[in-house]
Amino acid sequence: MQLTINNKVFTDNSNEANENSAFVVSSQNERFRQSAIDNGCKEIIESKDLKNYLDMSAIKIIGITGTNGKTTTAAAIYSILLDLGYKVALQGTRGFYINDERIEEYSLTTPIQLGNFAHIQKAMNSECDFFVMEVSSHAIQQNRIEGLNFELKIHTNITRDHLDYHKTIEEYINIKNSFFTDETKKLINKDDKIVKYNPKNGFAYSLDEPSTYKVGAYSFKNGMHVMFSHFDQMHSFSSSMMGIFNVYNLMAALSAVHIVTSKPLDEICEAVENFAGVSGRMEIISSEPLVIVDFAHTPDGMKEVLQSFAHKDIICVFGAGGDRDQDKRPLMGQVAANYAKHIIVTSDNPRFEDPDLIIEDILKGIKNHQSVQVDINRKEAIRKAIEMANEDSVVLVLGKGDEEAQIIYDKKIPFSDKEEILKYIK
Question: Which CDD domains does the entry mention (predicted)?
């Protein structure tokens, strides 16, 4: 892509490089250095030096990483800061936003380096005080966040994911933890036993372990109600959102805003109550019957959602993505078997894999369960689940969240869990 800073053109694509542009070389495109020179490019800039061309001192960058919760936590921080009167940009899985306006549609969780710089430049042109961004493990390993000085780094949790890319859980954990080795201010989920970090400039939030922002009590009745302490001072907030994992997400968000703004916590808690959540994340599509869509696509993500409805008869509809970590599939099946009264295993985004074989992998983890159905047709699976529902049940449709397509081979076929649910409800 191309980026213009003070009338100077930068590109990381050797085909775009010429005598009028500078080629930004990184570990990802090093092999195309000579190609850029052959195209007439006379200036080669190392990716680590790109920061010298864009003064980002006027904006505070907040980065969130973790297996689950990045999108909700980032969106909550963005919402709270806007409510407190700040100008804010948000970059992540759901797109790029500036001051409540969507500038770009869905994208990579974290763009390439030039993409980050381009978005930050747009945010500064809009006089934003803060730039809130999701940081993926891919972005950390590929150094896409090189050159960014974070005001605050936030950790949500580390569980199994992306092992199709990182190969081992140890490698994945180490990459996530590497984000927290410097002396930047950092906010850590103290209840996560896996996280390792440099304690200098460290803050923490938790439900169980002692921390800077410690939840003392919470309840779920018509949403959530949370009490927490900060240096022996008690504070509380309510939210329409549900799930223990959302207690963590909202605690991370309000703690982060407190750290970067020093606004009174009670004022921040009031702003939390205006945040209704993120589309496709624990989203209630119907109340009668109760039908909820969530993006959970890992064993831990599913467990967090299912545990939140232990008081209900759970009807769980889910599958697993193709061309991704195969070992997690039986683990997902096992989680469903542990918590759900009825299970319907279906297709997710099979990509180039045979969906029947993906389902077979999931079923290996479901042992001696009294109510398991298989329907490869996701529309039919959703319909069956809704027909099964009654006033004591909750239908959880998991895996795709607010995605608007199903990926079969390399084609994106229009498909929305939410739309299918609404069709059957009507």
Answer: SIMIBI (cd01983)
209 is in an annotated binding site: no
**β-pairing verdict for 186-189 and 202-206:** parallel
Ligand-binding annotation for 168, yes or no, is: no
Token pair listed for 304: 């967090």
- The answer to whether 403 is annotated as binding is yes
Q: What is the pLDDT along the chain (426 residues), one digit of tens a residue?
A: 899 999 999 999 999 999 999 999 998 899 999 999 999 999 999 999 999 999 999 999 999 999 889 999 999 999 999 999 999 999 998 899 999 899 998 777 789 999 999 999 999 999 999 999 999 988 999 999 999 999 999 999 987 554 455 468 888 889 989 999 999 999 999 999 999 999 999 999 999 999 999 999 999 888 899 999 999 999 999 999 988 999 999 999 999 999 999 999 999 999 999 999 999 999 999 999 999 999 999 998 899 899 989 889 999 999 999 999 899 999 999 999 999 999 999 999 999 999 999 999 999 999 999 999 999 999 999 999 999 999 999 999 999 999 999 999 999 999 999 999 999 997
pTM (predicted TM-score): 0.89
Q: Is 71 among the annotated ligand-binding positions?
A: yes
Domain borders along the chain are 2-52, 60-274, 283-423
Evaluate whether 283 touches 110 at the Cβ level (below 8 Å).
no
**One-letter amino acid of 129:** D
CATH placement of domain 60-274: 3.40.1190.10
Using CB atoms within 10 Å of the CB of residue 105, give its burial: 0 to 12 exposed, 13 to 18 middle, 19+ buried. exposed
Query: Is 39 within any annotated ligand binding site?
Result: no
- Per DSSP, what are the bridge partners of residue 155? 65
- The answer to whether 72 is a known ligand-binding residue is yes
The reply, when asked if residue 110 is annotated as ligand binding, is: yes
Q: What is the assigned CATH class of domain 2-52?
A: alpha beta
67 is in an annotated binding site: yes
